[in-house]
Amino acid sequence: MKICVLVKEVPDAAVTKRIDPSTGRLDRGGEKNLNPYDTHAIEAAMQLKEGGEVQVDEIIAVTMGPGSAVRALHKAVSLGADRSVHLSDDALAGSDVAATGYALAQTLKRESPDLVLLGQQSDDGECYTIGAVVADHLQMPSLTQVIKMDVSDGGLRCERQAEYGYDTVQVELPAVISVGDAINEPRYPSLKAIMGAKKKPLDALGTGDVEIDASRVGTDGSQVECGNFKAPPAKSAGLIIEDEDTNETVEKIVAWLDERKLI
Amino acid sequence: MAGILVYALHYEGAFNKNSLGAVAEAARLASELGTEAHAIVVGEGVSDDLAGQLGGYGAAKVFKVEGPEGLSQPVVDAMAKVMTDNGHDYALFGGGLLGFEIGAGLAARIGAGVTMEVTSVSVDGGKLVAERPILGDSSISESRYKGKGIIIGRLNAFEVPASNGGTAAVETVDVEFSPWSTKAKMVQRGEQRGADVDIEGADVLIAGGRGLGKPEGFDQLQDLAGAFGGNSAVAATRAVVDAGWYPYAAQIGQTGKTVAPKLYLAAGISGAIQHKVGMQSSENIVAINKDSNAPIFEFSDLGIVGDLNKIVPKLIEAVKAKKGS
Ligand SMILES: Cc1cc2nc3c(=O)[nH]c(=O)nc-3n(C[C@H](O)[C@H](O)[C@H](O)COP(=O)(O)OP(=O)(O)OC[C@H]3O[C@@H](n4cnc5c(N)ncnc54)[C@H](O)[C@@H]3O)c2cc1C
Question: Which PANTHER family does its entry note (chain B) (predicted)?
Fold first, then answer.
């Protein structure tokens, strides 16, 4: 079985994000990292490989993004992927969710995976949606926000929490599954794996290599135009206490509760 | 006709509240556009009576499709067919898990633009424009669609009016499901898990999130609830319920319970929108979080920026002392 894991480079959660006023897009400068949810997708692939229920021949990390996204691929390889694929092209800049999903699906077609895994959300934008877009283009069944996944009856038995409780869904392969962060505890890469990551094979591809119709990607190929950014209405905030002296903080909390007859 | 089609999610004979809000919103927008709002219902053996109820919220017509409930891809097949056959330009969803999945799949299928987490929709130049908060809600961005548009609302973004009692015409549509959409099968839907914790009637709810760091963190919260005594209980976020730290029966939020106690004390909870919708009606909200930028501080009455491991033990003692006095 061949597993492709979609990964993404995102701004570090600790760094304040902002819109670049000149382009109207997210400023992607500053510290970047592998999207934390994607590390759970890689771990899920590793657990399938190590679980022994199915034979996993290869785990391939796939990303679309600028040159710097190579670092996210190195991180993915250090966490267990055998090799990686990097789709990068100026023509892709400004792609919306649907265009991004299309471009990724075309890239995946080249690999013919038996399973595509991804994190259910990225730290920097569209959430819960890429998996469904990719699945439709690949004509594969898909499920998102999965928190448990077991090999069963030649396919995967997946669980997730939905609006009315827990759903258990049996999915035939090939399939596209996006996972939540409760699915596993990702491992730490070993020093050896980090050092070796840059030596693993990395395919650098452009839109021409994966038969992407240029009119369907980039700003022109996107069906949504975003802009006109504005600040949200101001909210009336409550009282805030910074905890410096905990005894004092607790006294203040108790007084506040007492005043409202909550204690 | 630039009509609007709304997906109405239902479970055990009742429609999801967010879906009803979306139908009403679509009706409002459609009248401004000079067109109609329609709804689509997918399920096994859905009665015309149930489907027709959407008329009371403004749907001029309801398309009824026989198919599996709770999975997204059969609905993508159904909506793509109905939109193509009837010339709808927009699809509207009321938020929630299936909205994300169906909306995104549908965008791929019909080549439409899609916007999620939408908080408001307006009409400009005969087209829909959607507003969406971005970057942790620090900015709002406007989406305009070149062609067809798919709009997925944020939870509770669209108000749910009372039904005006009207009924809609119901049209049954036969859909041939695509081969891949029949390869996912619901084994069990809506299973309720975990011990039966009664949180809905509590006056004081102490809620814990991932900031507790480990399942044992809930023991501390039990002690705090115990210190308040009387009618108090411990609740949790989905993040920790998913991780198996606390029973689902005590989960607050979109996919859990809605509560409105006199006091809601949130420890180590970020305050994500899906959590907020379940507890925002609490009379008094107190939050302890070490991150001063945590969204929960935007809607708490008292916010404490600090480490719960330092604060909670002392708070337990102080509440006990106060109660004892
Ligand atoms: C379709 C859908 C439905 C959902 N339904 C629900 C739902 O019903 N209910 C729900 O809760 N969520 C729901 N979610 C998930 C929701 O989006 C959030 O992921 C979840 O609420 C986060 O839980 P949390 O606050 O415990 O964890 P996190 O977001 O990880 O927050 C943990 C917080 O703890 C703080 N912290 C860490 N350590 C400490 C410390 N020592 N002291 C103090 N503070 C600390 C951190 O600063 C952080 O703010 C849903 C999501 C989706 C997509």
Answer: ELECTRON TRANSFER FLAVOPROTEIN ALPHA (PTHR43153), ELECTRON TRANSFER FLAVOPROTEIN SUBUNIT ALPHA, MITOCHONDRIAL (PTHR43153:SF1)
- Kindly give the distance from the C-alpha atom of residue B48 to the centroid of ligand 1, in angstroms, as a whole number: 40
Whole-complex ipTM: 0.90
Terminal Cα distance for chain A, rounded: 60
- The structural domain count of chain A equals 1
- Chain A partners within 8 Å of B108 (Cβ): 98, 101-102, 132-134, 136-137
* Mean pLDDT, all residues of chain A: 92
CATH of the domain at A191: 3.40.50.620
Q: Helices in chain A by DSSP H: which ranges?
A: 36-51, 70-78, 97-109, 130-138, 191-196, 218-221, 246-259
User: Atom 22 in ligand 1: which residue has the minimum CA distance?
Assistant: B239
Bridging pattern class, strands B61-66 and B169-173: parallel
Report DSSP letters for A20-33, one per residue: ETTTTEE---S-EE
- Predicted local confidence at residue A237, as pLDDT: 72
User: How much of chain A, in percent, has pLDDT values that exceed 70?
Assistant: 92
Give pLDDT tens digits for B111-145: 999 999 999 999 999 999 999 988 777 789 999 99
Interface test with A, best of B16, B143, B299 (most A CBs within 10 A): B143
Please indicate if the annotation marks B193 as binding a ligand: no
Contacts of B321 (CB under 8 A, 6+ apart): none
pTM of the entire predicted model:
0.91
> Going from the N-terminus, what domains does chain B have, and what CATH number goes with each?
4-182 (3.40.50.620), 204-324 (3.40.50.1220)
Burial of B193 (0-12, 13-18, 19+ CB in 10 A): middle
Q: Ligand 1, residue A121: give the atom nearest the CA.
A: 53
Residue A227 domain-assigned (yes or no): no
Predicted pLDDT of residue B276:
94
What CA–CA distance (Å, rounded) separates B100 from A75?
Answer: 29
pLDDT digits (tens, 9 = 90+) for A218-248: 999 999 998 888 888 777 779 999 999 999 9
Domain limits at A22? 2-216
A13 within 8 A of A45, measured Cβ to Cβ:
no
In a domain, A17, yes or no: yes
Angle at A140 between CA A137 and CA A143, to 5 degrees: 105
Buried b (16+ CB within 10 A) or exposed e, A145-184: bbbbbeeeeebbebbbbbbbbbbebbbbbbbbbbbbbbbb
Segment B239-243 mean pLDDT: 94
Give the per-residue pLDDT at A69: 94
Question: CB–CB of B242/B256 below 8 Å?
Answer: no
